[in-house]
Amino acid sequence: MSVTRTNRDALSSSPYVSLQNLSLSVNDLLACCGFLCGDGCDGGYPISAWRYFVHHGVVTEECDPYFDSTGCSHPGCEPAYPTPKCVRKCVKKNQLWRNSKHYSISAYRINSDPEDIMAEIYKNGPVEVSFTVYEDFAHYKSGVYKHITGDVMGGHAVKLIGWGTSDDGEDYWILANQWNRSWGADGYFKIKRGSNECGIEEDVVAGLPSSKNLVKEITSADMFEDASA
């Protein structure tokens, strides 16, 4: 879940698509990427989601809206939803699935050096990062997060949108979570920058989406065909 929602947000924040005001479908990635992207609602792999965007494209949110408008506030909350089925049909009968697809022209990893990450954000917009979530992170309210106590809860992918330095000289990253706006600082948080806190600088991925709605035929030779059925 976290991979697909973050992916959609990062794309719609990119300067390459902002002129079109596109909102891309979480459901398309969640339901149709299949096991190669991960385990649907139970998590996935950011770089694989971006590669799906390159090979298959992603339809608009208008074509295939997110199946749950409320979502889950944080790990362990209920209810848990099963991954929806991939139907490859727009909810509006006057829209065609294949004509609603938008594509990325690339999917790539960024070096873990903070300077390289900052350069990528400055040039192309937000990136997607993965990190290890501990129990104390679920209770974050404000300030610069650093893991202090609690067990590992799992991995998580979020949108890295910027950076800064606190009044007392502590460097941090600024990130957007997706657990809802009542969590953290209106859904956002800061985490220590430059020391790979909780692995935040280890797995940084992004892509460059096309500004045009490129139509591609899905063939049996496509690397995702079997997985998305």
Q: Would you summarize the structure shown here?
A:
This protein is an alpha+beta fold and 229 residues long. Helices cover 17% and strands 21% of the residues. Strands 1-7-2-4-5-6-3 form a 7-stranded mixed sheet.
What would you report as the Rg, rounded to the nearest angstrom? Answer: 17 Å
Distance between the termini: 19 Å
**Can you give the mean pLDDT?**
81
Number of domains: 1
Approximately how much helix is present in the residues? 10-25%
Q: List the total number of helices.
A: 4
Say what the CATH topology is: Cathepsin B, Chain A
Q: Mind summarizing the main beta sheet?
A: 7 strands, mixed
Low-confidence parts: 1-19, 214-229
- Cα shape: globular
Do you know the CATH architecture?
Alpha-Beta Complex
Strand order of the largest sheet: 1-7-2-4-5-6-3
Top CATH class: Alpha Beta
What sequence of helices (H) and strands (E) makes up the elements? Answer: HHHEHEEEEEE
Which key phrases capture this entry?
disordered N terminus; 17% helix; 229 residues; 7-stranded mixed sheet; alpha+beta; Cathepsin B, Chain A
In words, what does this structure look like?
The chain has 229 residues and is α+β, with helices and mostly antiparallel strands. The chain has one domain: Alpha-Beta Complex (Cathepsin B, Chain A), CATH 3.90.70.10. Helices cover 17% and strands 21% of the residues. It has helices at 2-13, 26-32, 46-55, 114-124, and strands at residues 104-110, 127-134, 144-145, 152-165, 171-176, 188-192, 203-209. It has a 7-stranded mixed beta sheet with strand order 1-7-2-4-5-6-3. Helix 1 runs antiparallel to helix 2 (26-32). Keywords: Disulfide bond, Glycoprotein, Hydrolase, Protease, Signal, Thiol protease. This is Peptidase C1A papain C-terminal domain-containing protein. GO terms for molecular function: cysteine-type endopeptidase activity.
